[in-house]
Design brief:
Elements lengths: L1 E8 L3 H12 L4 E4 L15 E4 L10 H18 L4 E3 L2 E5 L4 H13 L4 E3 L1 H7 L10 E5 L3 E4 H14 L3 E3 L4 E6 L4 E5 L2 E10 L5 H4 L8 E11 L13 E5 L4 E5 L7 E5 L5 E2 L11 H14 L6 E12 L8 E3 L2 E6 L11 H14 L35
Parallel strand pairs: 1-2, 1-12, 2-9, 5-14, 12-20
Antiparallel strand pairs: 3-8, 4-8, 5-7, 6-7, 10-11, 11-12, 13-16, 13-17, 13-18, 14-15, 15-16, 19-20
The chain binds flavin-adenine dinucleotide.
The site of flavin-adenine dinucleotide has 37 residues, from helix 1, strand 3, strand 13 and strand 18.
């Protein structure tokens, strides 16, 4: 039986980042992944993920996303690779859109650079985008995207270089707390660890059943199109965008990798009973949905369909994250339920998971992400005061 100070279960966005931060601190750490890293069965595949500072979900995310930007830049410095590209982001919506109102609130509260744009101004600057005249829109120059698959592989490369052990194609069957340490059962034997980070994405409830009643899994679909006028969809002409209309909230990315215009609805196309039920089964109904949206708002983008991928959102009831020491056993740190907006934070969540699994606390404010908020007890494993509800915190 091999033994480690910390074991990280699941090497998607969160686990790869955690393993890197543990290894760089000289912690004897192992990362265990059930598939080959880079697989397309969880939540972290599909080329790119949006990043933005003025955060419509809640202004209290802004300090954390600032730290995430810093940490992504550090990964770039360490590897010489481009991970984060700032194209700016256009967020637009029908009158009363929460997307625009929430981002504006966060920008004003935190003094972030932004411009309010009329639909005509959006069309003039970004000719691919068409908005009805009564829509509101804003542009945040710091917005952009993270190269998701690359970022995960770089975190793993850095972790390995710093001395981490990486075990792939090995499924953890159970996490069993012992008096001394935690036993991790796999098909190939057991591993002992002082502490465990469970970053198993949509599989998390299999290892932490305490979370079962709070988590739901949403089937999501990513689509790539060959634009009818490619010259409007390159990095030089189109920023990342998110548009909320009466029927849908769709976001998308310029064609930076020659793979086409990527876009996806933020709304689910169905619930999954468990992560293993997900299939790469995107079909004509899924495609029709994004095509309809493109025809309304980016009509020159709605060319030939190039590719589709399904992916999973791991949702909490309030759509905030869960990052905490498990109240029933603080040697177990849980992360992953990120409600479909966690990737941009992976670089800082990795740091936080390393903090929690080595020292039990972190300098970052993660009080919003406690497990105990769901049962109303307010008792948190990580010992920080809870932020107020939406509109009170910040
Ligand atoms: C379609 C889509 C679009 C998104 N867009 C954005 C975006 O634009 N911006 C943004 O910030 N976020 C976005 N997100 C959210 C973000 O991608 C996720 O929050 C993030 O990738 C979750 O990473 P994770 O490491 O928690 O999960 P995963 O990537 O699923 O990783 C979990 C890993 O654990 C492994 N594992 C599970 N169980 C076991 C076990 N028992 N033993 C061993 N290994 C195990 C799995 O195989 C998997 O590799 C999007 C998500 C989706 C699905």
């Amino acid at each position: 039986m091999s033994s480690f100070e910390v074991a990280v279960i699941g090497l998607g966005a969160m686990g790869s980042a955690a393993l890197f931060h543990l290894a760089r601190r000289g912690v004897k750490a192992i990362g265990i992944e059930q598939f080959t890293p880079g697989h397309d069965r969880g939540s972290s595949h599909g080329e790119s993920r949006a990043i933005r500072l003025g955060y419509f979900e809640h202004p209290s995310y802004v300090p954390l996303v600032r730290s995430a930007y810093e940490n992504w830049r550090e990964v770039e410095q360490l590897t010489g690779e481009t991970v984060l590209t700032t194209t700016g982001i256009v967020e637009a919506g029908r009158p009363g859109s929460q997307l625009v109102a929430g981002s504006l609130e966060a920008c004003l509260l935190h003094g972030l650079e932004h411009e309010l744009l009329s639909p005509a101004e959006v069309r003039r600057r970004f000719p691919a985008i068409e908005l009805p005249d009564d829509y509101s829109a804003m542009f945040q120059p710091q917005g952009g995207f993270v190269r998701a698959d690359l970022a995960n592989s770089l975190h793993l490369r850095l972790a390995r270089q710093a001395g981490a052990t990486i075990l792939t194609n090995t499924k953890v069957a159970a996490v069993e707390p012992q008096r001394e340490g935690v036993r991790i059962a796999t098909g190939d034997g057991t591993i002992e660890a002082g502490r465990v980070v469970v970053s198993a994405g949509p599989w998390i409830t299999e290892l932490v059943p305490d979370l079962m009643r709070y988590i739901t899994l949403n089937r999501m679909v990513l689509t790539w199109y060959e634009p009818k006028r490619p010259e409007l969809f390159g990095l030089d002409r189109l920023p990342v965008f998110a548009i909320e209309d009466e029927d849908d909230l769709v976001y998308g990315f310029p064609d930076f990798a020659g793979t086409g215009l990527k876009c996806a609805s933020h709304y689910s196309s169905g619930r999954l009973p468990r992560a293993d039920a997900a299939r790469q089964d995107a079909g004509p109904t899924d495609e029709a949905r994004t095509r309809r949206f493109l025809e309304r708002h980016l009509p020159e983008g709605a060319g030939r369909l190039k590719a589709m991928k399904t992916c999973i959102y791991t949702m909490t009831p309030d759509e905030d994250f869960v990052i905490d020491l498990l109240p029933s056993d603080p040697r177990i740190v849980v992360a992953s339920p990120c409600s479909g907006h966690g990737f941009k934070f992976a670089s800082v969540i990795g740091e936080i998971l390393a903090d929690l699994s080595t020292g039990g606390a972190t300098r970052h404010d993660i009080s919003r992400f406690r497990v105990s908020r769901f049962d109303g007890s307010g008792a948190g494993g990580s010992g920080q005061p809870a932020l107020g509800a939406r509109g009170e915190g910040g």
